[in-house]
């Protein structure tokens, strides 16, 4: 029995190594990066919103709306909203930056900015 298992592992090892190298490593590396940033950021955002809801500051209805919006808005609508915010030409974020004289990057089209944009999107969605 042990000999059959050993030969089975010998013959399947190229496929196992290929699967781990070409699929497992890239997926776990990107996932680990996003998790290490989005989980603490989501906790900070949720804690900040919860503190704002409990303080006697003005605009509590706005804070409540921002806090409960990720649970109400479907995932597709949320994705369209973030694409509208992060659009390189007509996005709200780059438009606001252009008003103060800063040229913003294409956050969803440039590889260096795609991961931080995904981290912000997931932190907003996990704040509730």
Automatic annotation (TrEMBL):
The keyword Cell wall biogenesis/degradation belongs to this UniProt entry's keyword annotation: no
Subcellular location: Cell membrane
Membrane topology: Multi-pass membrane protein
InterPro entries linked to this entry: ABC_transporter_permease (IPR051393), MetI-like (IPR000515), MetI-like_sf (IPR035906)
Gene3D superfamilies, per the entry: MetI-like
Highest taxon in the source lineage: Bacteria
SUPFAM superfamilies on file: MetI-like (SSF161098)
Ranges annotated as spanning the membrane: 7-28, 34-53, 65-85
UniProt keyword annotations, A-Z: Cell membrane, Membrane, Transmembrane, Transmembrane helix, Transport
The keyword Membrane is assigned to this record: yes
ABC transmembrane type-1 domain ranges (all copies): 28-128
Protein name as annotated: ABC transmembrane type-1 domain-containing protein
Organism from which the protein derives: Nonomuraea maheshkhaliensis
């Amino acid at each position: 029995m042990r000999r059959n298992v050993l030969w089975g592992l010998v013959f399947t090892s190229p496929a196992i190594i290929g699967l781990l190298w070409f699929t497992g490593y890239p997926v776990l590396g990107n996932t680990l990066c996003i998790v290490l940033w989005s989980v603490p950021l989501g906790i900070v955002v949720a804690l900040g919103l919860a503190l704002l809801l409990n303080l006697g500051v003005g605009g509590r209805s706005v804070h409540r709306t921002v806090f409960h919006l990720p649970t109400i808005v479907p995932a597709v609508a949320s994705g369209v909203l973030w694409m509208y915010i992060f659009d390189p030409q007509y996005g709200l974020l780059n438009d606001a930056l252009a008003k103060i004289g800063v040229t913003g990057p294409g956050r969803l089209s440039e590889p260096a900015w795609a991961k931080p944009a995904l981290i912000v999107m997931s932190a907003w969605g996990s704040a509730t």
